[in-house]
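Anyone up for a design puzzle?
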C-alpha cells in the first residue's frame, strides 16, 4: 500500500517498482492533451468542402475594409485563399458545442500577443497566433490516434482563423469615426 492506495502490477497501466521497503508507483498511461481546436480541425479535415466563390473577401466590403484598416497583406491573401470554406466551417462550428470557448481562446491568444508584441505589424501578430495554434494541434496530434497531415493542420488552422476574423475576434474593428474612410 502506498498513500492509502493499493497497486498491483499491470493494474490499468500502473506498474509497481520497488527496492526493499520503498516503492514507487509509475503511471504508464499517457496523459493526452485535448484541445477543442484539434477536434474542430479533425472535423474540418474530414469534411468534403467544395471550393466556392460565394464567400469571397472581395464581395464583402466590411471584411476588406477591416483588412485595410489593420494593414494586413499576408493574412489578407491567406484569408482570401481560405474564404471558399467559410460556409462549411461556419456550419461545423455552429454545431460544435464548445464553439464559444474555442473562439474566445483564439481571441485570448491574439490579445496576449497584441499586448506583448505591440510593436509588431498585425501580420506578424497573426503569424504568432498561427504558430501557437499549430503548436496546440501538433501536441494533440502526437497523442491522438487520428493523425492530421501537415497540409491538413495548416489548412484547417487558417480556416478557423478566418472564421474567427469574420466574427470580429481577430484584428481590431474599425472605429465608428473612421469607417467611412475605409469603405469603398
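Challenge accepted. My sequence:
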Amino acid at each position: 500500500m502506498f498513500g492509502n492506495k493499493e497497486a498491483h502490477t499491470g493494474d490499468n497501466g500502473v506498474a509497481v517498482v520497488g527496492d526493499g521497503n520503498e516503492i514507487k508507483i509509475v503511471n504508464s498511461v499517457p496523459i493526452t492533451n485535448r484541445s477543442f481546436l484539434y477536434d474542430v480541425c479533425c472535423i474540418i479535415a474530414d469534411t468534403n468542402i467544395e471550393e466556392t466563390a460565394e464567400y469571397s473577401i472581395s464581395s464583402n466590403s466590411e471584411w476588406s475594409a477591416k483588412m485595410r484598416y489593420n494593414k494586413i497583406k499576408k493574412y489578407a491573401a491567406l484569408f482570401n485563399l481560405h474564404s471558399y470554406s467559410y460556409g462549411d466551417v461556419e456550419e461545423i462550428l455552429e454545431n460544435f458545442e464548445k464553439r464559444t470557448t474555442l473562439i474566445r481562446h483564439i481571441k485570448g491568444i491574439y490579445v496576449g500577443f497584441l499586448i506583448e508584441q505591440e510593436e509588431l505589424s498585425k501580420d506578424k501578430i497573426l503569424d504568432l497566433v498561427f504558430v501557437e495554434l499549430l503548436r496546440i494541434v501538433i501536441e494533440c496530434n502526437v497523442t491522438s490516434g487520428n493523425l492530421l497531415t501537415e497540409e491538413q493542420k495548416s489548412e484547417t488552422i487558417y480556416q478557423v482563423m478566418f472564421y474567427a476574423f469574420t466574427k470580429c475576434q481577430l484584428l481590431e474593428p474599425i472605429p465608428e469615426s473612421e469607417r467611412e474612410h475605409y469603405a469603398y
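A detail worth pointing out: The two ends are 74 Å apart (CA to CA).
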